[in-house]
Design a protein that fits this description.
Elements: H1 2-34, E1 37-41, H2 51-60, E2 65-69, H3 70-74, H4 83-91, E3 95-101, H5 109-119, E4 131-138, H6 155-158, H7 160-168, E5 172-173, E6 177-180, H8 187-198
Parallel strand pairs: 1-2, 1-3, 3-4, 4-5, 4-6
């Protein structure tokens, strides 16, 4: 009889543990996917894109991430961007990620148009509390970037205007994810680094 009671108590304990722990583990899992991330992708020459296309595919594999490729959506006409729709989508996300190739030490033409039409002339507080992450690729290496490179600044620092835009809009500017001296053989490594950042 005592053995039966002990078994019965053990079963009850297991059931109680399951009841209380399952919601916790589920909440922890949901926290990782509920941090909604919007990824804006742009490449001025999509037919030549290897790195950006690969990074986009990696971003699309992460749960809770929405990917919008500007050239796919709007072609190359900088006047076609639907600012109102893009603002609506942006409001639904907590983190905004921009993925693009470094284009003459700048973002791409469509990404600049996107910022002009979506962010417009709205002042501080536009995206208060959201995060911004820059993800960019560059063919150049140490001979171009860094203190000893031709331009004298790091690849990450090339995009200081994006940092200024983020801070002006009330965002948190995350440390950029930059890939220089890019090579197709390293794409899986780049993809892994990106997915790890998106899951943080």
């Amino acid at each position: 009889m005592k053995l039966f009671n002990l078994c019965g108590k053990a079963k009850i304990a297991v059931i109680l543990v399951a009841i209380f722990l399952l919601p916790v583990s589920k909440a922890i899992s949901n926290d990782k996917t509920d941090f909604k991330t919007l990824v804006i992708v742009s490449h001025p020459y999509p037919e030549r894109s290897v790195m950006i296309k690969g990074l986009q595919e990696a971003a699309e594999s992460v749960e809770g991430v929405t990917v919008r490729n500007l050239e796919t959506l709007y072609g190359f006409d900088t006047r076609k961007i639907n600012g109102e729709e893009e603002r609506r989508i942006t409001r639904e996300h907590k983190r905004i990620v921009f993925i693009f190739p470094t284009h003459w030490f700048n973002i791409t033409p469509m990404m600049k148009a996107y910022l002009n039409d979506t962010w417009g002339s709205v002042g501080p507080g536009l995206w208060q509390g959201k995060e911004m992450l820059i993800v960019t690729t560059a063919a150049g290496g140490d001979s171009t970037y860094g203190k000893t490179g031709r331009i004298g600044v790091s690849l990450a620092d090339v995009f200081t205007p994006m940092k200024a835009s983020a801070l002006h809009a009330g965002m948190t500017y995350l440390s950029p994810l930059v890939f220089q001296s890019v090579h197709s053989s390293k794409l899986p490594e780049y993809q892994h680094q990106l997915t790890e950042r998106l899951k943080m």
